[in-house]
Amino acid sequence: MKVGDLSLRELRRTLAGPGLRLATGPFGCQLQSPIAAVAPELARLYAEHELLDETAFIDFYVKVAPSSGLRRWIRPKAIFSVDGVHPFTPLPADQALPMLEWGLNWCVTAYCHHLLVLHAATVARGPHALILPAPPGSGKSTLCAALVNRGWRLLSDELTLIDLRDGRVHALGRPVNLKNQSIDVVRRFAPEAFLSRPVHDTTKGTVALMAPSPQSVAASREPAWPRWVALPRWRAGAPTRLEALPPGEAFLHLADNAMNYHILAEQGFEALGRLIDGAEAFHFSYSDLDEAIATFDHLADQA
Amino acid sequence: MDFDGTALWACAELDGRRLHKDVADGRLVFDCESCETRLLSPLSQFLIETLEQQTRPVSTAEMVRAVHVEEPEASIQECLKEVEEALGALVEAGLLRAVAA
């Protein structure tokens, strides 16, 4: 049974009550939120996600609840908690849904040291993964969303999970975080994609979430082999350019983008070493999404 | 730092464990204590390997000559400049130490 099989009423009752238990890639999550506005968009964003039964292992018990007292009525706030811990300051209640996503990301980076976690998007064609590590503002999520809407499989738009045993990338298959101008860019590029209502004035600006494609969610338990690493950089009017990046430099970029490299120490060094041994690395500058996709399609066709 | 050609160099005695990985554009060195990763240039990598093969300290001039053998099209002056820069980077990375003559 999937989240989309629940009626909105059932979903609201589950979120407000025992919690929605669902699988996101290798993780079992239990989501709770009595905030009524969360359910309708969550229903669309997670429609294809498999529901877990009561015997399934849950990695993260998370909750986004309204604040109590006066804050319930005047400038209401939402409070995120995981296992009863509140790692963030409360945010305006209309940010409850993005807060849930940011909170789930926080759980992965804070607790999942059995994996090397990179701040990077990853998409795949067949068994081959394309890793897109980049700082905010580089066009990473926009490019990721565009690729996913043209047949690439979404593994993750934000956190790339490298298995320390075999080097494969695990999928998360969760919504893509879009910010500011990229929201309209993706809307125009893929009008058929579901995007949540934009939420303004967050710490990241205006944000919206894009639902992962059904095939991405269906394959979210299938890891992929890192085959390409591309450091994207969007610049207005820039020609599409894919330039080889030497492996040592690529390693340093990946290490800079690794969330738990310093915690994993030798294991992290070895995991990144294996990754660059098996992947070609590039600098990638672009301004036109169609050309960008054609470039990566061409790479994939040659693999 | 004064590189006059007679200075002697040896690999530093490392206080913590280090891992390395050779790649096309040099050598990645990971300090297990600080978790810092450095990318040594191919020339730095060559100098370290030259030092590792010796049981005695090696002078700057010897290293310049070794580099010139590998890069005969470059002038000695060019080799000296590059070696000086690479030695400086290696000292900064804690991988090399000056030895009293």
Architecture overview:
The complex is a heterodimer of chains A (303) and B (101). In chain A, a hairpin with a 2-residue loop joins β1 (20-24) and β2. Chain A starts with 7 loop residues before the first helix and ends with a helix. Chain A is of the alpha+beta class. Chain A has 10 helices and 16 strands. The longest helix of chain A is centred in the middle third of the chain and has 16 residues, at 96-111. In chain A, α1 (8-16) crosses α2, α4 (140-148) packs parallel to α5 and α7 (247-256) crosses α9. Chain A has helices at 8-16, 38-45, 96-111, 140-148, 181-189, 214-218, 247-256, 261-264, 266-278, 289-302; strands at 20-24, 27-32, 60-66, 77-82, 91-92, 115-125, 128-133, 153-156, 159-163, 169-170, 176-179, 199-202, 205-210, 225-234, 241-244, 280-286. Chain A is 32% helix and 29% strand. In chain A, strands 6, 7, 8, 9, 10, 14, 15 and 16 form an 8-stranded mixed beta sheet that branches. By secondary structure, chain B is of the alpha+beta class. Chain B has 3 helices and 6 strands; from the N terminus they run ββββαβααβ. In chain B, the strands form 2 sheets. Chain B has a 3-stranded antiparallel beta sheet with strand order 5-1-6. A 3-stranded antiparallel beta sheet of chain B has the order 2-3-4. In chain B, a hairpin with a 5-residue loop joins β3 (26-31) and β4 (37-40). In chain B, α1 (42-52) crosses α3 (76-92). Chain B is globular. Chain B starts with 7 loop residues before the first strand and ends with a strand. Classes of the chains: A alpha+beta (303), B alpha+beta (101). The A-B interface holds A 246-249, 251-252, 255, 261-262, 265-266, 268-270, 273, 276 and B 19, 21, 23-28, 30, 32, 35, 37, 39.
